[in-house]
Amino acid sequence: MRLRLRHLHLPSIHPHYIPYSLASRVQEHLRRQHLDFKDAQSHTSTSSSTGLLLPSSQPPPPTLISFTPSPIYTLGRRQTSPLTPSETARLTAPLQLPAPTPPPPPPSSSSSQGSSQGSSSSSEPASLLPVRLTHSPRGGLTTYHGPGQVVLWPVLDLKSRQHRQLTVRCWARALEDTTISTLGRVFRLAGFTTEDPGVWVSPSSSSSSSSPPTTTTRGRVGDDVGGGGGGDGGGGDVAKIAALGVHLRRHVTALGTAINVVMPGSGRGEGEGTTDERGNPWARIVACGLEGRGVTSVAGQLGGGVAEVDALLQRAGLEAGERGGRERGVAAAWAEELARRVEIAGGVEVVSAEETLALMEGLAARESDSAACEDWDERAGEEETAYLARIKELIGGR
């Protein structure tokens, strides 16, 4: 059987978002499987015993974890100065988020009228969500993850012979190129790279052509990149649409990229231009420590906002709409592109919601059983338990 990329999507349905701590636990579990297999192989290379290997001697499959977490700020390794109590209080103040925009109505002759900005409002009141703060093994400073974003964490062995082997530098580039290609193929957005990590766009990156950009554009801020000129030529007229963070342990990957799909404070119909920290998480930080650089989203770059995001996802045969549909659609497209770039011959295998829930429940229970450990976070454990109970009800679990 040909190798396939397993895609594990951890569900979130507004206002019940997966705690970042639980997603990290899933990632570490999968990563440990790869590391244990490498340990077993190393042992058998110096010993006649083969007891540590599985009967099939097959390595764990490469896996993509995708999710939309509850609001959280992560501090990278360059964040060496401790936050003051006032800074911590500012970052962790509750975030007021509107209910998700309803999906667009079926196409009709009147569908091109004025509401294409995606500004149709839900009857649900705004939600007040708690905000967490944590340290991350990635490089860099402070960034934000939360609703409206899809986080993509591939877990694989860069030196595995099952697929294309990559250096650390090539892996980081593959993550960026996968994101650029996905944005171009699905949304006709021309992303590019700069001297700073991540994927960037200029205000002119949304193509008016029905044909998506087909090439990966790499360059420095100020270069004529993005497929339409644009920018001010001085490097200021660009905005980050996807963040990048990489961590490796013995060539086994962790972290990855995060694409802003419909982010508060970053696009049309989602509080564009607001500096109100109660509803715009980006107003509380200088994202990744990059002064003068903006943050944007897919919806913010499209003339039709959220409604156009859904329409383009549906046109590409992908899931769209509320209840996490937009994020699942983007993640599915990204998974297919990653499998192609890493040369995983069998494509993508989507893990069922039932199997995903069972894995998360097992990991959460295992952690709570070891609550006496020094690193046990009781608050995080309570959040994980509450999330799992609610999400099972919402997606038709037990």
Give a short overview.
By secondary structure, this protein is an alpha/beta fold. It has one domain. It has helices at 20-46, 85-91, 168-187, 298-301, 305-315, 325-341, 353-369, 378-394; strands at residues 5-10, 63-67, 72-75, 95-97, 127-129, 132-135, 142-145, 149-155, 192-193, 199-201, 217-218, 239-249, 252-260, 294-295, 348-350.
Low-confidence stretches: 47-55, 109-121, 207-212, 214-235, 266-272
Distance, first to last CA: 33 Å
Strand content: 15-25%
Count of alpha and pi helical runs: 8
- Looking at the structure, what is the overall shape? globular
What is the structural class? alpha/beta
Task: Tally the beta strands.
Answer: 15
Mean pLDDT: 80
- The Rg value, from CA coordinates, equals 21 Å
Number of domains in the coordinates?
A: 1
List SSEs in N-to-C order. Answer: EHEEHEEEEEHEEEEEEHHHEHH
Q: Considering DSSP H and I runs of 4 or more, what fraction of the residues is helical? A: 25-40%
The biggest beta sheet reads: 8 strands, mixed
What's the SSE blueprint?
Layout: E1 5-10, H1 20-46, E2 63-67, E3 72-75, H2 85-91, E4 95-97, E5 127-129, E6 132-135, E7 142-145, E8 149-155, H3 168-187, E9 192-193, E10 199-201, E11 217-218, E12 239-249, E13 252-260, E14 294-295, H4 298-301, H5 305-315, H6 325-341, E15 348-350, H7 353-369, H8 378-394
Parallel strand pairs: 1-2, 1-15, 3-6, 9-11, 12-14
Antiparallel strand pairs: 2-8, 3-7, 4-5, 8-13, 10-12, 12-13
Structure description:
The protein has 398 residues and is α/β, with parallel strands linked by helices. It has one domain (5-80, 152-394). It is built from eight helices and 15 strands. The chain has helices at residues 20-46, 85-91, 168-187, 298-301, 305-315, 325-341, 353-369, 378-394, and strands spanning 5-10, 63-67, 72-75, 95-97, 127-129, 132-135, 142-145, 149-155, 192-193, 199-201, 217-218, 239-249, 252-260, 294-295, 348-350. The strands form four sheets. Strands 1, 2, 8, 10, 12, 13, 14 and 15 form an eight-stranded mixed β-sheet that branches. The protein has a three-stranded mixed β-sheet with strand order 6-3-7, with no helix packed on it. Strands 4-5 form a two-stranded antiparallel ribbon. The radius of gyration is 21 Å and the shape is globular. The model is unreliable at 47-55, 109-121, 207-212, 214-235 and 266-272 (pLDDT under 50).
